[in-house]
Amino acid sequence: MNLHEYQGKEILASFGVRIQRGIVAQNPEEAVAAAKQLTEETGTGWHVIKAQVHAGGRGKGGGVKLAKNLKEVEEIAGNIIGMDLVTPQTSKEGKRVHQVLVAEDVYYPGDSETSEFYMSVLLDRSKGKNMIMYSTEGGMDIEEVADKTPHLIFHEEIDPATGLLPFQARRIAFNLGLSGTAFKEMTKFVTALYKAYEASDSSLFEINPVLKTSDDKIMAVDAKVSIDDNALYRHKDYEAMRDLREEDPIEVEAKEAGLNFVNLDGNVGCMVNGAGLAMATMDLIKMAGGEPANFLDVGGTADAKRVEIAFRMILKDPNVKAILVNIFGGIVRCDRVAQGIVDAYKNMGDSIKVPIIVRLQGTNADIAKELIDNSGLAVQSAIEFKEAADKVQEVLK
């Protein structure tokens, strides 16, 4: 589950991480009120207005602006709220901005004593350890840094048995070229950041940039946070932060129906039981000359109702030219799945306008094939993987 910047900063602050303070606003009037409040609390006269969407590169798309007075705060907030923000991490249509973060300006004109760093905490799956990745090149895309100056990216592996050790936090501060007060502040920052990552059951904490101010304070100026969905039962307060407006509506619908669904950009819809078989089916579609339009795991119960919901979700994508149903009947019997497909097809009537190939393998697969073939519906059956691939290739032609 992805969070907005202001939500990620709230979590960071709760664990003692110093943050760039800000107040979220839903409209220009609230933005002006937030700016006035920040001026009273911090003394700042300038404010940074940041679009709150689940995407990076907001500044490149015009979603981050500096306001030097209250009139500019109102004007900029009015321009950003309601815009479709296009960034390198969004589709060409962009993301609609519903709210902005009005933040204190922590940069001072002509101040050369500030420094920006990159820092993230994430899981290194290949080693089964958490990792802190950091660089002196803050404020830039980390992919660009990795491509052009890989020697400026450092990694610190964290042993799960011991957690982050004090010497590791000190080594990070040393590799960032810090000394004195800034060195001590960075070790505190890193320790608190890692504590926040672990305690919140996050899969990613990315701070870009981490700022060293001219008076040697270390703070998070941005925050990209992803919480592990599987741990949300332990964090009801975090679960309440979910912004469904930022998520694919079809994926939200699938989650409510208990289906595992991910939207893709292809032309062949997939309906499969089991994640491994789903991945293999996507490969099968590629080999047949198509592109998978989705990842859809219907789980162990592929009854008529579940199959109908799955069909309706797949068909919401206008790019889908065919649907491949690939079910292995281990726990579930193939003939029951076949009957579910026939019933769902009949219930949906004329709303199905694309060819459907059904491959059923496992318990009672032969009976299932008979049911499909004798249904009188425009559904093609297959038993072997190769046979299903050939049929997909045929209908795409």
Automatic annotation (TrEMBL):
| HAMAP family reported for this sequence | Succ_CoA_beta (MF_00558)
Which reaction equations make up its catalytic activity? Answer: GTP + succinate + CoA = succinyl-CoA + GDP + phosphate; succinate + ATP + CoA = succinyl-CoA + ADP + phosphate
Q: Where is the ATP-citrate synthase/succinyl-CoA ligase C-terminal domain?
A: 271-391
Q: What is this protein called?
A: Succinate--CoA ligase [ADP-forming] subunit beta
| BP GO terms, sorted | succinyl-CoA metabolic process; tricarboxylic acid cycle
Q: Which cofactor does it need?
A: Mg(2+)
Q: Tell me the Pfam families matching this sequence.
A: ATP-grasp_2, Ligase_CoA
Ranked from the top, the taxonomy reads: Bacteria, Pseudomonadati, Bacteroidota, Flavobacteriia, Flavobacteriales
Q: Which gene encodes it?
A: sucC
* Self-association state and partner proteins as the record states: Heterotetramer of two alpha and two beta subunits.
Single annotated GO MF: ATP binding
**Tell me, what does this protein do in biology?**
Succinyl-CoA synthetase functions in the citric acid cycle (TCA), coupling the hydrolysis of succinyl-CoA to the synthesis of either ATP or GTP and thus represents the only step of substrate-level phosphorylation in the TCA. The beta subunit provides nucleotide specificity of the enzyme and binds the substrate succinate, while the binding sites for coenzyme A and phosphate are found in the alpha subunit.
